[in-house]
Amino acid sequence: MQKVHDKPIYLDYASTTPIRPEIIADAHKIQQEFFENADSLHYGGQRVSDLVTKSRQYLAKQFNVLPQEVIFTSGASESNSAAIKGIAFANKHLGNHIITSKVEHSSVMGACKQLEDVFGFEVDYVGVDETGSVDLHQLKQLIRKDTILVALLAVNNEVGSINDIQEITSIVKKNPNTYLHIDGVQALARHDFELKQIDSVSFSAHKIYGVKGSGLWILKAHTPCLPLINGGQQQYGKRGGTTDNVAAILWAKTLRLALEDSKTYYNHVQELSNLLYETFENEPGIVLNSSRLGSPYIFNMSVLNVGSEIMMNGLNAKGIAVSAQSTCNSQSLKPSHVLMAMGANEKRALSSVRISLSHLTTRAEIEKTIETIMEIKKYVQHEL
Ligand SMILES: Cc1ncc(COP(=O)(O)O)c(C=O)c1O
């Protein structure tokens, strides 16, 4: 059992965020008072259906899409899998070629790999520059007549690099047979992008102070896509299964509050990020893996000769929670695929630390974290 700290410092917001108290209260109320199946035709069902419709309409308006293009899922992993496999299967008659990148989340990587290994699709993995952003020149070269799908993330979850979605869209949309899926998880309510020409997008509620197990999938009406989960007429036949009323109804408020906070506190987060850059960018024995061009919400660096595990355990002992690579790969002893794709060597990739910030993060928390990292660095590097 690990020690419980009086004032723990949580800096792992890219992994998940705490649920807002108002969302917890609403979840409780909806669960108690609106339990009926939204697809039932009786009074109770229709009452629930009205609330789900209201939430869906708000989301559609925010994303500038049609209400029937908003699908509630169990999380972004499901949205990514459903989009990638569903679009690939439905468009196989047009081509067999898919493009993703070398720095995607495991849910995108896994879906593409399965299409390649089990279903005979051909997958190309576009490279990234030294900041982690997709190499647009290479993307242009990889697109072929038989490319049916390009699946890329908007903001990288390990290093915070931001892809130029507008430019990616204009490159991909030159080919009329190519559909574009964007993993927008780390961009939502932080780095908005235009969805107009994008065919499919995934989001997750627990990254924006909502409940876990709640995802969104924006699937444009014109996009042929086979459902991953078969069922009845729920969600326009795109995703079978009884809708999670609570998660669906909470989405609208979760997004509205996250957008408000992002507007109010973006500069605050930027200042904290600046402090991390100013402290570590010229520090001997440290290599930055994030760039100032990326998202201020995610800062990643390697403290050379101090393995990720040593740094994380040292910080953990002082009540400071950070991570190394993506939480989905946190049990892996392999170097981060993102850092390797960015050109890092194994030593650098195995000594990375990710500090991810929130509007809730204070300057005192960052100062304490900097001080503790410096102490651990000095101690371990001195021992070598
Ligand atoms: C970029 C990215 N995509 C997808 C996911 C998966 O989201 P979820 O936890 O809702 O399945 C995550 C979460 O770690 C993520 O950071």
Describe this structure as you would to a colleague.
The protein is of the alpha/beta class. It folds into two domains: 9-18 and 264-383, Aspartate Aminotransferase, domain 1 (Alpha-Beta Complex), CATH 3.90.1150; 21-257, Type I PLP-dependent aspartate aminotransferase-like (Major domain) (Aspartate Aminotransferase, domain 2), CATH 3.40.640.10. Helix content is 40%, strand content 14%. It has eleven helices and twelve strands. The chain has helices spanning 21-33, 43-63, 76-90, 106-117, 136-142, 165-172, 245-280, 308-317, 337-341, 346-349, 363-383, and strands at 9-10, 70-73, 97-101, 122-126, 147-153, 179-183, 200-204, 215-219, 286-288, 298-303, 320-321, 352-356. Helix 1 runs antiparallel to helix 7 (245-280), helix 2 runs parallel beside helix 7 (245-280) and helix 3 (76-90) runs parallel beside helix 4 (106-117). The longest helix has 36 residues, at 245-280. The protein is globular. The chain starts with 8 loop residues before the first strand and ends with a helix. It binds pyridoxal-5'-phosphate (PLP). Pyridoxal-5'-phosphate is lined by residues 75-77, 80, 105, 107, 153, 157, 183, 185-186, 204, 215, 327-328. Pyridoxal-5'-phosphate binds next to helix 3.
